[in-house]
# Entry
Amino acid sequence: MLGSATDGSGETIYWFAAWTRSRHEASVLKQVQEKGLEGFLPTSPRWSRWKDRKKRINFPLFPGYCFVRVAPTALPLVRKCSGVVAIVSIDGHPAPIPDREIDSVRAFLDSHLEGDPCPLLDTGAMVEVTSGPLRGVVGRLERKGSQARLIIAVGLLGQGIKVAVDAADVKPY
# Structure
């Protein structure tokens, strides 16, 4: 349901996505909560490796985004948080997120199942590899899942090469 709750003044509140500067998601969440607003930053634990050690760290499931539940009139307070680039909008208007989508993310987190963030891509879409040894390579996505299949084609020959890539390492082209 979209915006079923109201704030203290009777205004309907919605979930919005705040686009943040790189690695500022937790800082934005803290500032939002300090202003008395509801925030949500879904994270997933992962191993991070440095030269001398490994450590388990909570990484955002949606890197670069923090969710806030506010009335549209309170969005200027969110925009003033240090690290917020913008509120995700459609045609210049802040785009509310349906409650069921946030509830689905919460249900996933409560399930303790393993999952990795990945772009929302359709099979057959042209994608570009963003990291790893194939960084910069453009191909067609053949199969989705944790190990996406990428087809690197040589169109002139009518031939291609199928290679497995991590779904989190591709973006729409």
Remarks:
- The longest strand covers residues 147-154.
- The CA atoms of residues 16 and 96 lie 5 Å apart.
- The two ends are 32 Å apart (CA to CA).
- The chain has two domains: 14-111, 126-172.
